[in-house]
Every structure is written in structure tokens, then in C-alpha cells.
Amino acid sequence: MRIEAYDFGTITIDGKTFSNDLKIIRRTVVPNWWRKQGHNLLPTDIEDIFQAKPQVLVIGTGNPGMMAVSKEVKARLAELGIELIVKPTRQACDTFNRIGDTRDTAFAAHLTC
């Protein structure tokens, strides 16, 4: 699975373009990802990722990086032994592409601010 392009508000994965926030879990795109508190990532927003127990979770925090990852999310990931990488979305896409083929990597991306 490859992220081919990202621009503010859109992302192209394996030839398909999405215009809403999304997750990738077990090499499957989960489109139209919505968070309870918008720019604050809470544990309930990624319960499916916790259940999948990937080795790594790459989070794209938006083009300028406005989305915050709560300390509760960080603590839960640490409890599960899931490595967390948090970057603005453009850099998160590059990171996912770099490690996604060699490690079980989940991805959660805010596409705008």
C-alpha cells in the first residue's frame, strides 16, 4: 500500500483519491474518519487501531500540524507496546511509505488544518 500524493484536503492511496480524514489499518483504508473533538485525538477515536495492535501507528496531525494527540492516547499505545510517530501529515505520509512495507503500520491522518 502506497500513499502516492498528499495536498491540503486530499490524499491519494493506491490510485484512489480521498477528501476526508482517514485511517489505514491492516492495509485497508478506513475513510471518513471523524473525531469526537476535532483537533484533539482521543482514545475512542482510534479504538479500531488499538484492537488491531500494529507495531507502529503513524499519525498525521494536519497540514500545519494542528491536531493534538491526547496523553490518554499516548498512554494506551505505550501500554499496548505500539510505537507512536506523530508528524504533520505530509511528513507522516512519507514516514508511512518508508516503513509501511517492512513493519505492521497503521496510519491515521487529518488532511486539513
Question: Secondary-structure blueprint of this entry?
Answer:
Blueprint: E1 3-7, E2 10-13, E3 16-18, E4 22-25, E5 28-30, E6 40-41, H1 47-52, E7 56-61, E8 68-69, H2 71-80, E9 83-87, H3 89-99, E10 105-110
Parallel strand pairs: 6-8, 7-9, 7-10
Antiparallel strand pairs: 1-2, 2-3, 4-5, 4-10
Percent of residues in helices comes to 10-25%
Question: How does the overall form come out from the CA principal axes?
Answer: globular
Work out the strand percent: 35-45%
CATH class: Alpha Beta
Tally of DSSP helical segments: 3
Largest sheet: 5 strands, mixed
What's the total number of strands?
10
Q: Can you list the strand order of the major beta sheet?
A: 5-4-10-7-9
- CATH homologous superfamily heading: MTH938-like
The CATH architecture name reads 3-Layer(aba) Sandwich
Number of domains: 1
Query: CATH fold name, please?
Result: Hypothetical Protein Mth938, Chain: A
- Radius of gyration computed on alpha carbons: 12 Å
